[in-house]
TrEMBL record:
Protein name: Gar1/Naf1 family protein
One Pfam match: Gar1
SUPFAM superfamilies in the cross-refs: Translation proteins
Source species: Candidatus Methanocrinis natronophilus
InterPro entries: Gar1/Naf1_Cbf5-bd_sf (IPR038664), H/ACA_rnp_Gar1/Naf1 (IPR007504), Transl_B-barrel_sf (IPR009000)
């Protein structure tokens, strides 16, 4: 589990997360599309839908699962699982 960033907005049934800065030795990893996103308690929130903005401090769009209350996660830190499922994350 790696830190994704802090949720800053909810737009069109998606969460916008301000990614962690990628400065100096403490560079964070950019998640892959479809990576599973979790909260601090490791409860699954959704999946990475898109990534945009500057590569040294990107924004990540998270598509929440249907039963997730997006308002609960605004202003909270989210994380992603290092191993994703489907799409580009599969190791064939």
């Amino acid at each position: 589990m790696k830190r994704l960033g802090t949720t800053v907005h909810s737009v069109q049934k998606k969460l916008i997360v301000r990614g962690e800065p990628m400065i100096g030795e403490k560079k964070t990893e950019i998640p892959r599309i479809n990576s599973v996103v979790v909260d601090q308690k490791k409860a699954r929130i959704g999946r990475v839908f898109d990534i945009f903005g500057p590569k040294d401090h990107p924004y990540v769009v998270v598509k929440p699962y249907r039963d997730v209350d997006m308002a609960v996660h605004l202003g909270k830190k989210l994380y992603f699982e290092e191993r994703g499922f489907g799409g580009r994350n599969r190791k064939d």
